[in-house]
Each structure stands twice: as structure tokens, then as C-alpha cells.
Amino acid sequence: xxxxLDKIYIFKTNIEQLCTDCxxxxxxxxxxxILQWSVDTDDVDYVLRIVSESLTxxxxxxxxxxxxxxxxxxx
Amino acid sequence: MRVRDIDKxxxxxxxxxxxxxxxxxxxxxxxxxxxxxxxxxxxxxxxYKDKDDLIKKIGAEIAIEFFTSTIENFSPDMPFEKGLWIxxxxxxxxxxxxxxxxxxxxxxxxxxxxxxxxxSTTKFSDFRIIMKQFIENxxxxxxxxxxxxEVFWSIAYGPLYTLLNFHNEGKSMxxxxxxxxxxxxxxxxxxxxxxxKP
Lengths: 75, 198
Fold this sequence. Notes:
The structure holds two protein chains of two kinds.
Chain A: E1 8-13, H1 23-30, E2 36-40, E3 47-51, H2 57-66, E4 71-73
Antiparallel strand pairs in A: 1-3, 1-4, 2-3
Chain B: H1 6-27, H2 30-37, H3 41-47, H4 51-70, H5 80-97, H6 99-109, H7 114-118, H8 122-140, H9 149-169, H10 182-196
């Protein structure tokens, strides 16, 4: 099924690296409201892409900030 | 509400092909692409997860388009010479019509994504089956000399691709201006057939 475009959130972050054991990976993998996520670590903006039915951009920013990373919504 | 904008998506595909052909796979970035399309980086990430995702999706789209075009008016039951000539015509027509797409595919072939792309849909295996059938029928009907697959492929298509490359570059050996004609294609085809037929 096609993802509803309104449920995709795009952020600029400073998540320069991802690994299976990282807090970011673990937290986002285990979050019940996050359907899909990815970080483009090759990009200068380390773009985080999140698909979620219920979360708001603000909540996602808080989650990432709590993990010790900067996070800013891209429009 | 966000609406899927088909025109914008097409613009992204055209510009991505252009940039990858120009800068290569390593020199390409989502930022450069967004700038070239005059759209925000965020919009690009709505459609594609990252550079790899974009390249795989566009690569698969072009590969399907190319393979579908190569088997137009073709059937694996055709006599060998006729079938191969149709393949030549189709492959040449696609290259003449979409030189950028062909150049893009050449870049992608060298990238680590080539296999992912070819395994992304069963359409590619269907295509392989059709070609295999064509070769088997031709061998069975004694219209083709038995030889190793790669040897067959290089003789059957190599001459055409060399000529198409010269054509795309606009020059041949030593920078001599070059334009591929139907006559030249036929001449090369006849030479290839001589090597392939018993």
C-alpha cells in the first residue's frame, strides 16, 4: 500500500552515524507509533524520515532531542 | 494536505538522470537534485528515503522500460535471424530515443545497486526466460552454433553496442565524426549472423 504523504515527516538532524546498537536505532525501532524510519547518513543534513499515523513533528523532535541529537523539521 | 504531484515526480526523475550522467554516482546528492528541480529537500525525501532508494527506484523504472522495449514485436519462437534483427532494431531505437536513460543505466551498472535493481521485480527474470527460450529454440532448430553464453552475447550484441556507443559520443576511432546509419547496422548485423549461424 502507498504511504499517505501526510504521514511522512522530514527533519534535518546531526545523526551522523547509525548502528544496530545505537540508542537512536533502538528507540526508533521500538517505538510503537513509528511505522517506518530512516536516516540518510550520506547527506549533509543527515535527513531523518519518519512515517507515523499519530505522532506530531514536535513529539518526534522531542524524542530525537532526548537522545542527544539536534532535530529540526524541513519544509 | 500533501498531494502526489506526478509532474513534480517526473521532473525529479529527469533531473536525477541528468545529474547522475553528468557527475557520476559518487558526485550526486539529494541536495544538488533538489536545487536542480527547484524544490525543497524535504519534498524529495517525501518520495525517496535516501539517495540509494532514489537510484534503485529510478533504475528499476528505466530497466523495465528498456527490457519491455527490447521485446516489442518479438517472440522467442521466431527464426533466429529475424528475432535477433528485431532485437537489434529495438535496442537501437531505445538508445536513439533515450540516450540519457541509456547513459544513466551504464552508470548504475557499475554501482553497487545493479543487482538489487535486477532482483527488484520478476519482470527481469521473465525477460531472461524469454531470451533463454529464444536461444534454446535457435540451437534446437540448428540456426545457431553452440557456444558459451557470454561468447554468444558478445557476438550477438557487442557489435551493435560498439556502434551505438560511437553514435552517442558522435565520434569513432581517433575522434572521427560518426553517425550510425541503418545501412551500417545491417552490415554489422550480417557479419554477426555469419559468425553465429552454423
